[in-house]
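REQUEST FORM: STRUCTURE PREDICTION
Request ID: SP-0412
Submitted by: Lab K.M.
Chain count: 1
Length (residues): 380
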Amino acid sequence: MNKWITANAFAQRELAPAISPDVRNCTIRTSVRAGLSGTGIQLVFEEGYGQTAADYRSVVLELDGTAYNVLFHGMPSFSVAPGQQAVSDGLSVPVHEGEELTLYIAMGGSPSMSETTLEQRHSAPGDYTHGGFEPVPYQPPLQGVPFNERLCGLKEIRVEGEGVSIAAFGDSVTESAVWTIPLGQKIAALRPNMTLLNLGIGGNRLLRDTNVPAMAGLNAFGRSGLRRLDSDIFALQGVKAVIVALGANDIAQPGGPPGFSPPASELCTFAELRDGLQEIAGRCRAKGLGVIGATITPFQEYPSYNEASARVRNEINAWIREAGAFDYVLDFAALLCDPADSERLAPGFGLGDGLHPNPVGGAAAAERIDVAEMLRAVGL
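STATUS: Completed
RESULT:
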């Protein structure tokens, strides 16, 4: 018997109004590809960070040129209270893995303050869920800062079917999708109707929340991995394994660029990071999930790099590889490092900041992963 399963999911962080558009009484348009096939579609909205209820006027889903009204308890309008979810009525619309879904979301006067990892395409003043949408491209408010326009409120897309998923639980290296997209393609090619969900949040740390000066006390990098595990992983439907790719910001973030980094005193120790990873693995296993560990990639050219952070990175990577805490290990550190200097990303594999891999590096790493072996290790 079919059931509702998570085909796409999006981690949330607190909205930073200074760098995000004002979408009050606006229609937002975004597109996302279905991760799984099914006989129906259901949307989940969540207000993980807002202090007041988020108001939605209406939502329309467009699939293969046909528009469908998305209803909540039979009504087009709905609100989501702080810390709560709104789950739509099911749409009896077949969807196929890889198919593009377009959403038109008309916000009310009190918009969501819970920013997701999914980018919206455009917004426009007014309710254009029933046609006439004229997009207004996003203009970044801070010159020279490469922020993208983020969607707010949407948490999951579910389909009615029998698929399963693996959740990638990480930071910006995960959120950027440079390795999740090619790895997800390899998984889907080997195991149809199995998807890789991206639950990465840029700037996210495993052990601590990150409230940096430039964000005026807002939790714009999301709650710590230890705190968000329940809502971002365990609350999803159909997840069978988790890739734990956190810890880079616990050692690379402290003492980094002023304004966007916590103080150097927050550099964690090896023991703290080990204990945090062990806790994540233990909580996942208690839920019956397979656990895949990911080593931390090199960042020698990043501003906060020093001997202490390098030592913690190498110690924790050795532990991830050797301690047996995980069912399988994705050794991104080895796959992405310069063969001549393991503290640097390989030439051509980085974005230029010394920390983040680029799509070329991500694709190269994914190409070398034995997906069949990985799935066997987690019982899939």
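NOTES: The domain at 163-377 is CATH 3.40.50.1110 (Rossmann fold).
Reviewed by: T.R.
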